[in-house]
């Protein structure tokens, strides 16, 4: 009960969880789901669940698309896979890179060290789309110089499965 600020909600959750969940992993998953929903409500982001219900796809991709770095971080810390493939078979990092969502890739600067939400939590910097494009190439094609610089600083390498890089918006 000490995990929850609202003891009435915790009590309701515990009663529902004990009736509906028979295994320990189901209880843990339900508890995490409850905590995530509670967090979404506390930061005014419950609409992300509505969007997910309408469009489908992983909640992590919805949070990236809505540029909610805070939600992305909470989801990852509650067990979401930072490399989960979405409806278009892309990773969250690929989507953020292609759209130039630096706030999702980078949370904030503390001194000289940048905190990368997706990168620091295991996002695959070299994951390829079905067309062979990496996050670095997607950011470059879209002209997102800030994301290109962040990905390069994190160790992303220039390579591409196809023969030509001529249509990159940023000069190599």
TrEMBL record:
Transmembrane segments: none annotated. Keywords: ANK repeat, Repeat. InterPro entries: Ankyrin_rpt, Ankyrin_rpt-contain_sf. SUPFAM superfamilies: Ankyrin repeat. ANK repeats lie at residues 55-87, 131-157. It holds the Pfam family Ank_2. This is Uncharacterized protein. It comes from Nezara viridula.
């Amino acid at each position: 009960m000490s995990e929850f600020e609202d003891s009435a909600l915790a009590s309701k959750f515990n009663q529902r969880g004990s009736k509906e969940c028979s295994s320990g992993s189901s209880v843990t998953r339900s508890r995490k789901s409850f905590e995530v929903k509670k967090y979404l409500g506390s930061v005014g982001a419950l609409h992300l669940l509505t969007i997910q219900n309408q469009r489908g796809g992983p909640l992590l991709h919805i949070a990236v698309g809505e540029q909610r770095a805070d939600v992305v971080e909470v989801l990852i810390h509650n067990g979401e896979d930072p490399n989960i493939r979405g409806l278009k078979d892309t990773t969250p990092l690929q989507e953020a890179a292609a759209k130039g969502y630096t706030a999702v890739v980078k949370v904030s600067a503390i001194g000289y060290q940048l905190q990368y939400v997706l990168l620091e939590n295991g996002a695959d910097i070299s994951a390829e789309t079905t067309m062979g494009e990496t996050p670095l190439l997607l950011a470059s094609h879209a002209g997102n110089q800030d994301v290109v610089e962040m990905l390069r600083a994190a160790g992303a390498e220039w390579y591409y499965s196809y023969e030509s890089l001529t249509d990159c918006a940023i000069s190599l």
